[in-house]
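Open question from group meeting: does this chain pack into something compact, or does most of it stay loose? Before anyone orders reagents, we agreed to write out a predicted structure and look at it together. Recording both the input and the output here so the notebook holds the full record.
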Amino acid sequence: MRRSQLRLFAGLMLIGPAGLFLAASAAGAAQVTPAEVEPSHLLPPPPAPGAARAKAELAEVKAIMAAATPAEVAAARKDDGDEKPDLFQVALGPSLDLAKLPLTTKLLNEVAEEEDPGSKPGKDYFHRDRPWIVDASLTPCVPGKPTQAHASYPSGHATRAFSMGVVLATLVPQKAGAVMARAAEFAENRIVCGMHFRSDIVAGQELGTVIALSLMQKPAFKADFDAAKAELAQAAR
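Structure tokens returned:
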């Protein structure tokens, strides 16, 4: 894990999964409201085009892409097309097979569905160019796919990975370190893939965490959370 990945990850581990869930106690529905996750209120603006920090972030993207091995590019390409709960299977291990855990998968899919309403307003508001728009010499790892050329900030993939990751780490505290490391790796692969800058994925980490905490404040979500927790406890026996 690169040092720049560790900032939010370390903070989450200091809080701990139990602390995250203890912070969640208010009433409401199972979905977050726009006001709870409004990116223009929650996130700082990305670096201005042409600013020193923007140039440094572009240089970092180019360096990471140039240094990536074929295996790392293949992993980034796979993550580009897989935003489902199974992205965490490697962190859970064979004893907790998500294919055999329908309640847990259902819960994580509920979380995933909140990503687009959370990140899309931010993409529309900040309207940041993707790396391959800023520098036409860059080729994303999925060259036939790139769309939303001005939707770099925040990263939707990072938002989704961290929203699901925080909930899953709270469900399975004994796997929390591996789960959050996988969320960080998934987010980092957006740079390997040439789709995002560093501040895009950091913003996604922050927004995803807010989405998770907001969901865990909802009684309807709490009911599904408890069902998934019981299912996981049974599978771990």
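Observations to bring back to the group:
Confidence is low (pLDDT under 50) at residues 1-29.
The first helix runs from residue 6 to 15.
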